[in-house]
Every structure is written in structure tokens, then in C-alpha cells.
Amino acid sequence: MLEWQSIFVPALPLLEGAVRGTVMFFALLALMRIAGQRESGGLGVTDVLIIVLVAEAAAPALYTQDSTLTDSLIVIVTIVFWSVAVDAISYRLPVFSHLVKARPKPLIRDGQLCRRTMHREFLSREEVESQLRLHGIQDMSRVQQAYLEPNGMISVLTRDGEGNAPVEKPEAL
């Protein structure tokens, strides 16, 4: 027999669920900002954060580990609320945006590698040259600017003023 109360009645006070979601969101956001952006791939740091938090918040309710669906939903709603709130606040307040949103980092300026960024993001010269080749560039001196973008991709502007799109992999026959 199903015990409806054990499924829907919160085991935690509502405020505690909201506080847990708030603390986890900002703690993981800070950790992701400190860790850097290189490994996040095509998703933005905030996207990864939301996916991880929502999965973690949903897991206890899915596996009945001392948590009801309502407890998990409260935490998930809180996480999504803070995600939207952080985006809205950073849109309206650029100062706040610089604190919570990743910015492009220079990798190459006037054909010269920016060693500081490479050191911070653990990028070797070979990895940067590999990315340039994907953009169809053999000679680094042709690069006016190259940036490590917030989504982990590298954008390149050549001296002729044009950006180069990465060469796509040919499809298998």
C-alpha cells in the first residue's frame, strides 16, 4: 500500500530546503569559477552547475533516501530560481556579472602566446597550436588575437581581420 504522506509531505522545513539549495548553488558556482573554464566543453559553467545540482537534488527523492519528492522539488526550484536570478542580476548590473560570469581570456595577442592564461588554464603550446590548425592556421604570427571563450572553445581573429571557423570533421561514408 502506498503511503502518500511519505511521498509528498516534506521531511524538512521549507526554509531549510531553500537554504540548502541556496548554499549549494553559490558554493558550487564559486568552485566552478575557481576551477577555470577549460574543461567545461560546449556548455557554459552555469549550465554544468545547474545540471549537477538538479541531478543531486533529485536523486534522494528518486531513491527514497530520507527525502520526499516535495523536499527535492523545493531544493530544485530554489536552484533554478537562483540560476535565473543570477542571470537577471548580472544582465542589469555589469559589476555583478564580472563576479559570477566567465569572460573570454586572451591566449594570443599579436602573434605571441599569453603564457599567464596558458599557465592558469593548464594549456600547453602544442594544444594551442592544435586549436589553431583546426581553425586552418599554420603560422601563429598570422593571429592578431585568440581567446579561450567561457564555453571552453577557442576563438581566433587573424591579422586580416577575419575570424576563422573551425574545420568540421568530414562525415564517414
UniProtKB/TrEMBL annotation:
Gene3D superfamilies the record matches: bsu07140 like domains
Keywords attached to this entry: Cell membrane, Membrane, Transmembrane, Transmembrane helix
Mode of membrane association: Multi-pass membrane protein
Keyword set includes Transcription: no
Family: Belongs to the UPF0702 family.
Pfam families: DUF421
Recorded superkingdom: Bacteria
Protein name: DUF421 domain-containing protein
Subcellular localization, as worded in the UniProt entry: Cell membrane
Tagged with keyword Transmembrane helix: yes
Annotated signal sequence range: none
InterPro entries: DUF421 (IPR007353), UPF0702_alpha/beta_dom_sf (IPR023090)
Residues annotated as transmembrane: 12-31, 43-61, 73-93
Matches recorded under PANTHER family: UPF0702 TRANSMEMBRANE PROTEIN YCAP
YetF C-terminal domain span: 95-161
Species for this entry: Mycolicibacterium pulveris
Chief place where the protein resides: membrane
GO CC annotations on file: plasma membrane
